Amino acid sequence: MLKIQDYRPQPFIDFTKAENVQAYEAALKKVRAELVGKHYPMVIDGERVDTAEKLTSLNPCDTSEVVGTTAKATIEDAERALQGAWKAFETWKTWDMDARARILLKASAILKRRHLEACALMSIEVGKNYAEADVEVAEAIDFLEYYARSAMKYSGFGSSETTWFEGEENGLMSLPLGVGVSISPWNFPCAIFVGMLAAPIVVGNCVIAKPAEDSGLIAGFIADIMYEAGLPAGVLQFLPGVGKDVGEYLTTHAKTRFITFTGSRAVGLHINEVAAKVQPGQKWIKKVVLELGGKDGMIVDETADLEVAITAAVQGAFGFNGQKCSAMSRLIVVDAVYDDVVNGFVERASKLKMGTGEENANVTAVVNQMSFDKIKGYLEIAPQEGKVLLGGEAPGECNGKQGYYVQATIVGDVKREARMAQEEIFGPVISVIRAKDWQDALDIANSTEYGLTGGVCSRNRARLEQARQELEVGNLYFNRKITGAIVGVQPFGGYNMSGTDSKAGGPDYLAYFMQLKTVTERW
């Protein structure tokens, strides 16, 4: 029997070794020969179905290149997918838990074999460099392995403990909910796409997966792996489409039982609002699992190891160009070491190389025109809200290639209430905030409406313990970067306006996709 104790996270690739770099470069050539230019249709009830209109995926680092296309689902397609998924559910819910788990483990084995292909595809489609792509595919593998093992504790009658009572048998049954919709983001188009569909599927639900429009190819690649692993027709409906059309239709539909969404605060709150409204014919209260971003801060006090703090700041701020909900977008430094930390931060960040994901650059292009324009808007107000210490421009070009390029940017002496210190920018633009002392720094860290990740660099034990209790974040890191949660090791998710704190990759995540039935028999 599978045991959660046997789970071990996937190791990362060491790209300081020449042979690993060469293997990645070979994978890029293979992907360019076999996957770039590919078209992925929808998959409804196990059948590949195409549409007249297509969604086009561009290389953000070279916008003259079309990476590939997917179908563009209509509302009629969404309705067919929903009805088909409910039909598939009638059989899928009867499978033994371990039988469903084996499919996740088979998918994991396939993805391990195709690890570098998935990485290379993301380098081209969303601009991830080697390390960022590698850790993401490792996370996707971890989700499959961890959820397969986690499902075992929900298997069978009496899987949850109840109290003994004379003359009766009492027990709890964990039952799947039905059919849900998964709306996943472009910034982790492999890992989050996998995690959001694998968790509900392994415990007996069926899922309609709508990937982000900017990352349809890697989603199609992963969906094919799930089908190859043995998912029966209709259990996973692959439905690329536009969120405001098919996403809206499915989240408001009376037959949708649950919704998982990772993305912007505005869209997530809208989904939560419309999902709460009971539609004609609806017989349940929809479950909604949301992860909505952050305005994450890392505090550095005067006792910190400044070298550790500066390294953590650069890694947390500029990994994948700050396009992570967990990214450090605020560096909060006490006045006593402000100049030393900021000078070191700027010096280290100034050495970051801009270029393409395929070149393994430190800073690549942001994902699309909308993100590029949004970030440029913040760069325009940066001189009014602080002092631009590094970068500050969005050239839209690098080494002769047109793309959504934004310089690594550091803005110093930003006020805690400034727009740049309060609003999620989702790019390589960092606000540095000067705090009077430790308590002021903690107050600044808690001054946003978000609560996803945060960090403290300090050697003062009392302060670390105070932060443990008072810093309002779902994931808190001491003396390291504030990104890079590992499945099963650091369950991930935030609260306040950062989401429902559902803790993906945690011991209780699967429970969101089940309902409990208490059964009593009098002897």
Keywords:
single chain; alpha/beta; five-stranded parallel beta sheet
Overall description:
The structure is a single chain. The chain is of the alpha/beta class. It has 15 helices and 23 strands. It has helices spanning 18-34, 75-92, 97-113, 115-125, 130-150, 191-202, 216-228, 243-252, 265-276, 306-318, 338-349, 369-385, 419-422, 438-445, 461-470, and strands at 38-40, 42-44, 47-49, 54-59, 62-71, 168-176, 179-183, 206-210, 236-238, 258-262, 287-291, 296-300, 328-334, 387-390, 397-398, 401-402, 409-412, 429-435, 450-451, 453-457, 475-478, 495-496, 514-522. The strands form seven sheets. It has a seven-stranded mixed beta sheet with strand order 14-17-18-13-12-20-21, sandwiched between helices. A five-stranded parallel beta sheet has the order 9-8-7-10-11, sandwiched between helices. A hairpin with a 2-residue loop joins strand 2 and strand 3. Helix 1 (18-34) packs across helix 4, helix 2 (75-92) crosses helix 8 (243-252) and helix 4 (115-125) crosses helix 5 (130-150). It is globular.
Can you lay out the helices and strands and say which pair or pack?
Elements: H1 18-34, E1 38-40, E2 42-44, E3 47-49, E4 54-59, E5 62-71, H2 75-92, H3 97-113, H4 115-125, H5 130-150, E6 168-176, E7 179-183, H6 191-202, E8 206-210, H7 216-228, E9 236-238, H8 243-252, E10 258-262, H9 265-276, E11 287-291, E12 296-300, H10 306-318, E13 328-334, H11 338-349, H12 369-385, E14 387-390, E15 397-398, E16 401-402, E17 409-412, H13 419-422, E18 429-435, H14 438-445, E19 450-451, E20 453-457, H15 461-470, E21 475-478, E22 495-496, E23 514-522
Parallel strand pairs: 1-5, 7-8, 7-10, 8-9, 10-11, 12-13, 12-20, 13-18, 17-18, 20-21
Antiparallel strand pairs: 2-3, 4-5, 6-23, 14-17, 15-16, 19-22
